[in-house]
């Protein structure tokens, strides 16, 4: 299972899972070419099979207009990976601005 924290402005899924000190790389780093997707995944040490992927670091300047495109890319990349997850859970920010019509 991969849980994706897609709230670029107010990331908090890492806090809820107790992984806040282990998030060093994000999907934004992958898109920038700074790392591979598997390097940005944070494995939960006590919940076997659970990985976290944060879309960006807190207070980043990632444009919200790209939200749905980035999530589509992330989901496709996870499915094409060497060990695709059975489930991808996405924690989205509130409001319609994230998925413009």
TrEMBL record:
The keyword Cytoplasm is annotated on this UniProt entry: no
Record's keyword annotation contains ATP-binding: yes
Leader peptide range in chain numbering: none
GO BP field: negative regulation of cell division
GO cellular component: a single term: cytoplasmic side of plasma membrane
Single GO MF descriptor: ATP hydrolysis activity
InterPro entries the record matches: P-loop_NTPase, ParA/MinD_ATPase
Keywords linked to the UniProt accession: ATP-binding, Nucleotide-binding
Entry protein name: Uncharacterized protein
